[in-house]
Design a protein that fits this description.
With 260 residues, the chain is α/β, with parallel strands linked by helices. Helix 7 packs parallel to helix 11 and helix 9 runs parallel beside helix 10. The strands form 2 sheets. Strands 2-1-11-10-9-3-4-5 form an 8-stranded mixed beta sheet, sandwiched between helices. The chain has a 3-stranded antiparallel beta sheet with strand order 7-6-8, with helices on one face. The chain folds into 2 domains: 168 residues, TPP-binding domain (Rossmann fold, 3-Layer(aba) Sandwich); 80 residues, SIR2/SIRT2 'Small Domain' (2-Layer Sandwich).
Length: 260
């Protein structure tokens, strides 16, 4: 693991500057943006990895667009049902649990996630903004009503209990807008927090990629936690390079040594 602090790299295993610890401990509101990297440590395949990502093995136009669903609703529903089964077997990792602990230690905390796997909620996080939806939910194709549970049918997709329309996965597909309430809430948090952590996200998918820069414009301390460099790296106040499952627990341990 490496630390960049304003562009200077150290060859120590992991150095967390006391200035960062002080800002974290004194923060009134901490915001965290998480991406696929944090879930990858729980064994969930990312979508965009060029070698192992889902889009390296599946054509998104066949499974992740509204047009695909209208064309072959049963096929798309079954694809997401298989994904739900795989994700259901994954467990929150040390990074998820560290964020739960951080939420308990600061006055205000908002977790913004690009992930659809619900691992943050399962770990115990409470104040969550889901930018891309949740694979464990469905919504009515006709009315947009969210549905938390449904009965599987021999001829998927299942039907809306209110109107009888088709249910679709409650995730954001290619060509769709993010939920307006979620993205508005995310930008409001980014502009009002005093510490912003970007964890396991490539920093290339908009509009989420702009959240860290919104925080910077509002004079927040921006901390990047990632195993690789991203477009955010040169601009972040602090960069902690390494797996989130190692870096975040170390950050919490340094910030609250002895449980204080």
């Amino acid at each position: 693991m490496w630390l960049w602090h304003n562009g200077r790299m150290s060859d120590l295993d992991l150095v967390i500057p006391p200035q960062l610890i002080a800002r974290l401990r004194g923060a009134r509101h901490v915001a965290v943006l998480t991406g696929a990297g944090i879930s990858a440590e729980s064994g969930i395949a990312t979508f965009r990895d060029t070698a192992t990502g889902l889009w390296a093995r599946f054509n998104p136009e066949e499974v992740a667009t509204l047009e695909a669903f209208r064309r072959t609703p049963g096929f798309v529903w079954r694809w997401y049902a298989e994904r739900r089964q795989v994700i259901g077997g994954a467990e929150p990792n040390a990074a998820h649990r560290a964020l739960v602990e951080l939420e308990a230690r600061v006055p205000a905390f908002t977790l913004i996630t690009q992930n659809i796997d619900d691992l943050h909620r399962r770990a115990g996080s409470r104040n969550i903004v889901e930018l891309h939806g949740n694979i464990h939910r469905a919504r009515c194709l006709d009315e947009g009503t969210r549905v938390e549970s449904w009965a599987d049918t021999a001829d998927p997709p299942p039907r809306c209990p209110d109107c009888g329309g088709m249910l679709r996965p409650d995730v954001v597909w290619f060509g769709e807008m993010l939920p307006l309430a979620a993205i508005n809430a995310a930008f409001a948090v980014a502009s009002s927090c005093d510490v912003f952590l970007s964890v396991g996200t490539s920093g290339t998918v908009e509009p989420a990629a702009s959240l860290a820069y919104e925080a910077l414009r509002s004079d927040a301390v921006v901390v990047e936690v990632n195993s690789e460099e991203t477009p955010l790296t040169p601009s972040a106040t602090y960069v902690l390079q390494g797996p989130a499952g190692e870096v975040l627990p170390a950050l919490l341990a340094a910030g609250w040594a002895g449980g204080g």
